[in-house]
Amino acid sequence: MNSTVKKPEGCIELSNVQVNFIQNGARFAAVQDVSLNVQPGEFVSVVGPSGCGKSTLLNIVAGFLKPSDGVVTMDGQAIHGPSAERGVVFQQYSLFPWLKVRENVEFGLKLQGMARHEREGKARTLLGLAGLLPFENHYPDQLSGGMKQRVGIVRALATGPRVLLMDEPFGALDSQTRVVMQEILTHMWQQWKISVLFITHDIEEAIFLSDRVYVMTARPGKIKAEIPIDLPRPRSAAMTASPVFTALHRQLKSLIREESLAAMGGEIDPATMGQSWHLGEEGMETLR
Ligand SMILES: Nc1ncnc2c1ncn2[C@@H]1O[C@H](COP(=O)(O)OP(=O)(O)OP(=O)(O)O)[C@@H](O)[C@H]1O
């Protein structure tokens, strides 16, 4: 946990959550017995192999999905559906293409019944903080991917949520833009001190941004480990070369690698990985 002053609200708790889905007529557990929490003002990431149920967990906290079993609360109240108290940012830029940048940010405020001049002022302040004010009259199509995602974050924050839920928000960006976006997000988060639940495949991203990281097992997704990230704040790109960062990276990589191999269902034998394939004449024949 960082040492900044916490808002008194924005506590998410999942207790013994199970999610069953039906695929091809068969029921299976996507998520099993998951208990995790995000404390007020904390930045928590969830990492794990593809298909382990990360997005499913986020969708439950967002209120888009109901768990088959278990309890999910925000500040002690059960979550029954989506709410402006929980802002969501997805990988796909979910901006309205027919609205200008500022109109996109104002959208939720308009729904809340805020008067025009007030919402204009609020949107402009937030856009200014994100360095986007010069683009307030642009349409989303006129922006780069990184800028669109910054608008998406500002829009999610505009209505004053207690929690920000982010599902691979930088997954569609090139690696350089992604690193810059991580720095922007960590600075924005330090100003807003809002609780964040962040889903990512990227170990470095999870370490750089988070106070704690949960690692999930391969499907059915359970919590395999909870790793505190004891790096000072504010975070800077230079920290990624520090011994603490490197050790955390190694630890998380090893935990996830075990699960990624498990997720492949024994298709790959770790003992022989890296050895060249010797197909033999018979094997070559099957490829011809
Ligand atoms: N609505 C649904 N109906 C049936 N199966 C689903 C549904 N949603 C997700 N699944 C399955 O549940 C499992 C978990 O999916 P989920 O998208 O949560 O995983 P993930 O960890 O976010 O994956 P990725 O990292 O690849 O995005 C997957 O096997 C997925 O195919």
Automatic annotation (TrEMBL):
Residues 12-243 form the ABC transporter domain. The keyword Protease does not apply. Pfam families: ABC_tran. SUPFAM superfamilies: P-loop containing nucleoside triphosphate hydrolases. One of its GO terms (molecular function) is ATP binding. The keyword ATP-binding applies. Keywords: ATP-binding, Cell inner membrane, Cell membrane, Membrane, Nucleotide-binding, Transport. Belongs to the ABC transporter superfamily. This is ABC transporter ATP-binding protein. It comes from Limnobacter profundi.
